[in-house]
Design goal:
The protein is α+β, with helices and mostly antiparallel strands and 454 residues long. The protein has helices spanning 2-6, 54-61, 68-74, 97-104, 113-126, 171-179, 191-199, 231-240, 243-251, 279-288, 307-320, 331-339, 358-365, 378-389, 393-409; strands at 11-14, 17-21, 24-29, 35-40, 75-82, 85-90, 134-140, 144-149, 162-166, 185-186, 204-217, 295-303, 322-329, 347-351, 413-425. Helix 8 packs antiparallel against helix 10 (279-288) and helix 14 (378-389) packs antiparallel against helix 15 (393-409).
Length: 454
C-alpha cells in the first residue's frame, strides 16, 4: 500500500497489465535468455529532485524483499552500459526473472543511492525519499502517515494533494469514522458491519477479490509421530471447513473458493477439484487414520486481524473431533514467526497477496528452502528446477500443473478461498481506485484517486 504511494518500480502491476513499464520505459531479453536490459524513462526524478539513474537501480537490487535470495542466486552480474540503461546477466536462462523482478520480490522498487548512503538505513526509515506520486511529510507510529502530492511524478500529478493514512485497528471505529466523514476511504469492513455499510445512504461498499488465497497449513505433516503425517487426517481437515458458510457470514459471500493456494488469475494456475464440505466423511477418514475420537491439535496461529476466520475453522474442526486452541498474533510478528519457522507445532492460518505466478508461489510456500515452507516432498522438489529451466511454455505449464496436482493430492494445505476484501467509500470520493489493478487490495494507483468537485 505504502510502496504504491511513496515509491516507484522499474516494472510493476498497473491497470490492465501485471508487468507494466514504469521507471523503465522498456525492457528486452536476449535471444539466449541470459540477459535482460532495462532503459530508464527520461526525466524521472526522486522527490529531492535527483534523477533516477542506473546506479540507483543496481543499488536498490541489493535491498532485500520477499524471495529476494532466489533472484540474487540467479543473477551473475549487473552491468551499467550508461546512466540510463541496466543489464542483468543471469547464470542460466530463467523465464521467471521478470516475474520475480517486477512482482514477487521487492527488487525492482528503486530508492536513491546517494540519499540512503548519506542518512543510513535508520535515517531513511525516518524520512524516506522515493520516486512515487506522493512525498513523505510525517509519520506518527500507530496514528497516521501524512503524504503530499509530488507534482513532478512522471505518470501524472496526483489529483488529491494531501493523503493521510490513518491507523484505526478496530473495524467498528473505522466504519464510524467513515460515516462521520472523518475519513473518505476505510479498508476491511466485515460481517454485520459490512452489511450496515451497504445499507448506509451516501456510503458505497467496494468489494475486491484479491490474489490473496487464505489457507490452513499443517507444519507437523513431516513428523511421523504426528497425526498430521497421515494423509487421511489432512484430507479430513479439508472436508471439515465450511468455506461458503464462512464467506457468507464474514464477507457477504464475496470470497472466491478455488481450492488452491495459487491465485486463479496467475499464469500456470491449475484448477483442482472443487472444495467439498462433508463433516461426516471427515469423521470417517479420522477413524480410518486411527483417531475415531479425534485428537488434540494444539494451537492455531493466525494474524489477529483475521482471527474471526480462524474462529470458524476452530469450530469446524471441533465438530469432527480435532481440538485446537486459537493463538492470535499481531500481523508483523505473526508473519515474522511464520517465516522464521517458529510455528512447528499445531496449525497455521496463512495467506499471501504477493504478485507473481504459480512458480513464484510454489517457490515460497511449497518447495524445499521456501521462505514459508516447513518441509517438502521430494517428487515436487525434483520438478521445480525442471520447470525453472524450461523455456517452452506448454512444457513448462505441464510441469507446473503436475506440481500443483501433487500439492492437492498430498493435502499439504487446506485452502480456504481468495479473500473478498470489503471496503467502504464516502460521498466525497469520485474515483476510489479500488479494483483498478487486478487482484490488488488497496486504492492504487494513488494518483488516480479523485475527490468530487475538487
Amino acid at each position: 500500500m505504502v510502496l504504491y504511494a511513496l515509491h516507484d518500480a522499474m516494472v510493476k502491476p498497473m491497470p490492465g497489465k501485471s508487468q507494466t513499464p514504469c521507471l523503465a520505459e522498456s525492457w528486452s531479453a536476449s535471444p539466449d535468455g541470459l540477459s535482460y536490459e532495462f532503459v530508464i524513462r527520461k526525466g524521472v526524478k526522486f522527490h529531492n529532485g535527483e534523477p533516477v539513474t542506473a546506479e540507483d537501480v543496481r543499488f536498490s537490487f541489493e535491498y532485500h524483499g520477499a524471495a529476494h535470495q532466489l533472484i540474487k542466486d540467479n543473477v551473475a552480474a549487473i552491468d551499467l552500459p550508461d546512466p540510463q540503461r541496466v543489464r542483468f546477466k543471469l547464470k542460466k536462462p530463467w523465464p521467471d526473472f521478470i516475474a520475480f523482478y517486477s512482482t514477487a520480490t521487492g527488487s525492482g522498487w528503486v530508492v536513491p543511492k546517494k540519499y540512503v548512503e548519506q542518512v543510513g538505513d535508520e535515517g531513511f526509515k525516518k524520512a524516506p525519499i522515493g520516486a512515487g506520486p506522493y512525498k513523505f511529510v510525517s509519520f506518527t507510529p500507530g496514528v497516521e502517515l501524512v503524504l503530499e502530492a509530488f507534482d513532478g511524478y512522471w505518470r501524472k500529478p496526483p489529483s488529491v494533494k494531501r493523503l493521510v493514512m490513518k491507523v484505526i485497528p478496530d473495524e467498528a471505529t473505522r466504519l464510524a469514522a467513515l460515516k462521520r466523514g472523518e475519513v473518505d476511504i476505510a479498508y476491511s469492513i466485515r460481517s454485520e458491519l459490512a452489511e450496515e455499510l451497504r445499507r448506509t445512504p451516501g456510503l458505497a461498499l467496494k468489494p475486491v477479490v484479491l490474489q490473496a488465497p487464505n489457507w490452513l497449513y499443517f507444519p507437523e505433516q513431516w513428523d511421523p509421530k504426528s497425526p498430521w503425517s497421515k494423509l487421511q487426517v489432512r484430507q479430513a481437515a479439508n472436508l471439515a471447513i465450511d468455506r461458503e458458510g464462512m464467506s457468507q457470514a464474514l464477507f457477504l459471500g464475496y470470497c472466491k473458493v478455488t481450492n488452491s493456494i495459487i491465485p486463479y488469475t496467475f499464469d500456470y494456475f491449475w484448477q483442482p477439484p472443487a472444495a467439498v464440505y462433508d463433516p461426516a466423511k471427515a469423521k470417517k477418514l479420522l477413524a480410518e487414520a486411527g483417531y475415531p475420537n479425534g485428537f488434540d491439535a494444539g494451537l492455531m496461529y493466525c494474524d489477529s486481524s483475521y482471527s474471526n476466520m480462524a474462529e470458524v475453522s476452530v469450530d469446524n474442526f471441533q465438530q469432527i473431533g480435532i481440538r485446537v486452541q486459537l493463538q492470535p498474533i499481531e500481523r508483523a510478528p505473526f508473519f515474522a514467526g511464520y517465516a522464521d519457522k517458529k510455528y512447528t507445532r499445531g496449525i497455521i492460518q496463512g495467506a499471501s497477496g504477493a504478485f507473481g505466478n504459480a512458480a513464484t508461489r510454489l517457490a515460497s510456500f511449497v518447495v524445499k528452502g521456501g521462505a514459508y515452507a516447513y518441509g517438502s516432498y521430494p517428487d515436487i522438489d525434483e520438478l521445480f528446477p525442471q520447470q525453472a529451466a524450461e523455456l517452452d511454455h506448454e512444457k513448462r505449464a505441464a510441469i507446473l500443473d503436475k506440481m500443483q496436482q501433487l500439492v492437492h493430492q498430498n493435502a499439504i494445505y487446506a485452502p480456504i478461498w481468495q479473500l473478498g476484501f470489503l471496503n467502504g467509500v464516502g460521498p466525497r470520493v469520485g474515483e476510489s481506485a479500488f479494483g483498478l489493478i487486478a487482484g490488488f487490495a488497496y486504492t492504487a494507483p494513488f494518483e488516480d484517486i479523485t475527490i468530487k468537485n475538487a
